[in-house]
Amino acid sequence: MTQSFILALDGVVKQFAGSVSPAVNAITLDLAEGEILGLLGPSGCGKTTLLRLIAGFEKPQSGTIVLAEQTVASRRHWVAPERRDVGMVFQDYALFPHLSVAKNVAFGLQNPRRKMPQTQIQSLTEAVIATVGLTGLDQRYPHELSGGQQQRVALARALAPKPALILLDEPLSNLDVQVRLRLRQEIRDVLKSTGTSAVFVTHDQEEALSVCDRIAVLNHGCLEQIDTPEKLYYEPASQFVSEFVTQANGLRAQWHDGGWKTEIGWFAAPPDYQTETPQGIAMILQEGLRINADADSPIVICDRQFLGREYRYRLSTPDGATVYVRSLIHQPLAVGSTVKLSIDPAAVRIFPNHSF
User: Tell me: the pLDDT tens digits for 327-345?
Assistant: First the structure.
């Protein structure tokens, strides 16, 4: 069965005047119908610029953007934002302060080109308000709502016209932790229950992993990897993805006797493993290390954090490298004590030694 794509980008480039490098550099990706695609990366990596290119707020220098089988941007063709059938949810909600919840939601339905009857507008407004869990609040104004409720109104307004695609630009970053945790699940539930295709921009790794079906990791305008959350976490395609998505430890590694030797120990390579270089960078998941007290070890605990279900240790190796370990042991080890580490080979990825 052929998969249907609601969005396809091919070689999209955007470079702002005066910039030495593109903000978006030859990005190629696609989005299936009903899929939630995350754009993840640090500040300045190009994710919001890419979102604005999809929305039509920016024009690319080259490449094509196809939305719902219509080319909306190319060298010869351009479709204005208001004609792209795209809904937007902004970081700062962007609600009309003088309009009630119902009128904010209905705003997107009052399109002269559609000429929808008022009774239908009212029916759709009530339905989408119920979908986002705001029944009974339709006559309130934005200043009478909490931040989480305002963001639900913004989501309802974007959903009401039933666009081909919804774009969410850091929609949870202005909310406190508990509201963020609850609302990110609610947003996913609403998008899935309505079958809405969405692009979700965030710099928060946990948020992307929990909300999105696939995630595109951006770095300096380039696409490092696009994959499922599980593949990104356990099979990162680059050192950057490993560092940014999992906060893995990076250690120099030397090929030795069928395995890799590091400052914290040796671990065997998988069967049939092939390497073209005797040196590399071992990226080791924090939870892939086991920690045990050892008075004869040169590795020292410099700090310990209690995270509820686990402890996070910061260790120092003899040559000054810093290593982080997440451990479920109930009896914490003391700061200043020395420890021995063992490595789970499944938690290690080896990359070329470019950054050391």
Answer: 987 789 999 999 999 988 8
